[in-house]
């Protein structure tokens, strides 16, 4: 049936009205934030707070109960091995105290013997390790063993050299302690002033007792150490600490200087401790010890720092912002913007850093993805990138 002119005009008017109403009442595009699938370096890090401390710190304590003379040293002063740190004037001993002093002297003698035995055992182990390292060096030069075996032998010898140094320092400390306690047993020197000597060369880190007063035996007097041997104690959750290995690179930030400091994980302590978080939750935590690659003179003892432990470092990976990922029915998903609409895609991810994650499949380089997707966002919905 042929429509009249009036009917055609009415039909066109109705169609135009429907189109106008459709565009007027059609929902406006949802404003979203966007990111891009790209290639680049990916760092998987553990970020945590740490505290510096001097390695091989020596706490010099009062060997006897007595009156401490005023300490002339100041914090930061350099002292030599055997230098007088403090002077104590012991009181006269009664029968009970004399017997106690004798027993403590014998205990110090036993501690010295133990330190000597440990040092002797360490020296023997060091000599054997050095012979093995030399033998492996010759074999490596002849091509009889691998470089890895030679490096392991050298590392073992180096570690035992450090242990031997520590053992010798322990013997020195035990010998001075025994000598100081022996003076109490000798009646000729029971009232003679007792001098407290520096067990090693270093700097005065802390003076526990500065003014003249009576102190008990064993009271800490002065802390001595080498500020150049700084290590960083990093406090981690036990579930995070198991991901860390000795040798992992560490970046030290927010320590007060302008540049970041580089270091390596030295060791992970084997025993965890309980710590209550700011939210009142009990957490099991472990200390990870890191050492700096280069000495930083501005960094001192007991400084607060921020650290980044590098778990994985990949130079060129396909990656996507972590904030674009969400869990779906069958794994990880994200929204890709195609033709002004959000298209949901299932993806597979690998390494995951703080801000970027490795993308194994599901999207390609250059695609625009939606970050921080809201609950109202659905597959096929019109979207507009927020400026």
Q: What does this molecule look like?
A:
This protein has 387 residues and is α+β, with helices and mostly antiparallel strands. Among the domains are: 28-41 and 316-385, conserved putative lor/sdh protein from methanococcus maripaludis s2 fold (Beta Barrel); 91-188. The chain is 29% helix and 38% strand. The chain has four helices and 23 strands. It has helices at 5-25, 95-141, 147-185, 238-241; strands spanning 30-36, 38-54, 58-61, 66-68, 78-79, 84-89, 194-197, 202-207, 213-215, 220-225, 230-237, 249-253, 261-268, 273-276, 282-292, 304-321, 326-328, 331-338, 341-346, 348-352, 356-361, 368-371, 383-385. The strands form five sheets. It has a six-stranded antiparallel β-barrel. The protein has a four-stranded antiparallel sheet with strand order 3-10-8-5, with no helix packed on it. Strand 18 (331-338) and strand 19 (341-346) form a beta hairpin. Helix 2 (95-141) packs antiparallel against helix 3. The radius of gyration is 35 Å and the shape is elongated. The two termini are 54 Å apart.
Biggest sheet descriptor = 6 strands, antiparallel, barrel
End-to-end C-alpha gap: 54 Å
Helical segment tally?
A: 4
Which spans of ≥5 residues are poorly predicted at pLDDT below 50? Answer: none
Q: Percentage of helical residues?
A: 25-40%
Query: What is the general shape?
Result: elongated
Mean pLDDT: 84
Cα-based radius of gyration, to the nearest Å: 35 Å
Structural class by secondary-structure content = alpha+beta
Report the count of strand segments.
Answer: 23
- Strand order in space, largest sheet: 2-11-15-13-12-16
Percent of residues in beta strands?
Answer: 35-45%
Topology pattern, helix = H, strand = E: HEEEEEEHHEEEEEHEEEEEEEEEEEE
